[in-house]
Automatic annotation (TrEMBL):
Domain of life of the source: Eukaryota
Annotated VWFA domain residues: 389-586
Protein name: magnesium chelatase
Source organism phylogeny: Eukaryota, Viridiplantae, Chlorophyta, core chlorophytes, Trebouxiophyceae
Enzyme Commission number(s) from the entry: 6.6.1.1
The family this protein is said to belong to: Belongs to the Mg-chelatase subunits D/I family.
Enzyme class: ligase
Amino acid sequence: MRVSRETAPVRPCRPRGLVTKAVAEVADPPAGEASPEPEAYGALGPRSYPLAAVVGMDHIKQALLLGAADVGLGGIAIAGRRGTAKSVMARGVHALLPPIEVVEGSICNADPSDRGGCKPLLIATYNPEEGTLREHLLDRIAITLSAGELDGVTAGWVKNVPFSLEDRVKAVDAASRFQDASAPTLAEAAELTESLRTNITFAREYLPDVQIQEKQIEYLVEEARRGAVMGHRAELFAVRVARVSAALEGRDRVDADDLQKAVQLVILPRALIKDRPPEEFMFEAEGVILDPALLALAQAQQRAQGRSGRAKTLIFSEDRGRYIKPMLPKGDKVRRLAVDATLRSAAPYQLSRRARAKAAAAPGAAIRPVFVERTDMRAKRMARKAGALLVFVVDASGSMALNRMAAAKGAVMRLLSESYASRDQVCLIPFYGDQAQVLLPPSKSIAMAKRRLDSLPCGGGSPLAHGMSLAVRTALQARQRGEVGRVMLVLITDGRANIGLARSNEEPDAMGPDAVKPTTEQLKEEVLLMARRVLVSNLQMLLIDTENKFVSTGFAEEIAKAAGAKYYYLPNASDKSIAAATTSAMNEAKISP
């Protein structure tokens, strides 16, 4: 087992004695002298690769952040074969930890007379090929994960299969650049590293005030019992992980996301009964993060189905579908005559009508047995099951365009393959360059979708307002044709628009080289106007925010509020997470009044 030497213990209290002169000089330089540059610290020892620059391994990085925020977890063990970045990630935590104070003149940097307990942050890495780690030792460590293929000790349902081709290329490129010159990599990761360090510092302050409900503890205990986990350490560690997860997010209460992490990181690796858990408890392959709210989505979907069974959407008309009830005809023409209702309407007047007919008829003339007048006629009201229309509006601009388009394409194909019985239709509208376009018109044909989605256009500007405008027009046209029942827009964007409606609509004043570009406020107002149009048109919308939270403007959430839309933050949305969020939103819409 290899224990990281650079993971320093956190400061339990202010030690007695003098602070080391060298530490004091670094923390507070003499007057008139500049603070030492980061480059100066590199001479003190080997540089560590920044944790923020590690490609993939998101579950391990999350576990390391949890351990750094709460040393009471008892440590983190990372298993993996050679070259899986175990030690790199362990060393990278050192840069995220707050500084500690040492005592001058002590070989152990502490006051020997101070017998206060020391709470170090233990981060252990090991290779299962070199031997099996004893389980009683692992049981005292809160989180045990694998940095490669699953092994016998850390095997659970936490999956981390080998990287995709794209991720492996990124990892090789990043490592090569760091070996050639470490300064650029350190500079690129400096802002994110500082942000993570600040989050850890605040999390330590928030942690004592974080509350967890009794029913949430019962849930964690039940999960441990269901997995036949021995002892009570798993439940105790799971509660701590849930609380520190909430603290890292700046919350004072534990929610479903925190419970999900606790089950993933603590309980499942210890489970003796390997029943396949629900999909919401699994890490997705190829380094793609599933919807962090997938547990809540699945539970909401189950509740929706439990209350109403399989919700159906009906379209009413006078010519197509199943006869459900009679109605007064609209206009002079009756398309489908409801014979039963018409006869019932005419029945009370038969005696009087026969008497009038007999009085007016010649002696001995035959009298009709039934008299039906125009006022008796009733039309059939027909109803047929209709699926929903899902209009995917995808931001195909910028560096993440290909990832967003690929995820949207996967979600479209996944929903189409599951929509035969429900008659759902799917439409895909990417916006990039100067305009949006309907890449896939409303359709339920898988073959047509494959043909249309073979090429994925992307890059250029972000005409967000035009994309929303085109989506609203497409949805309203489909509704007016009576082809679908419900319509839902699924907007996948980071909320950053830089192309105005005037240019997208090819207005002459906006197309010239000297045309005045709209300001940021004007672009935002155009987008919010389109969002309010979605609300006024009685269209439902789901907004999936893919913006990096460390540089977030929060505008995507404003769009969701203006449109009355459901909002999910999925910076690394996959096809499964998009499909799950869309299905959940549709189920909730079907049972809403």
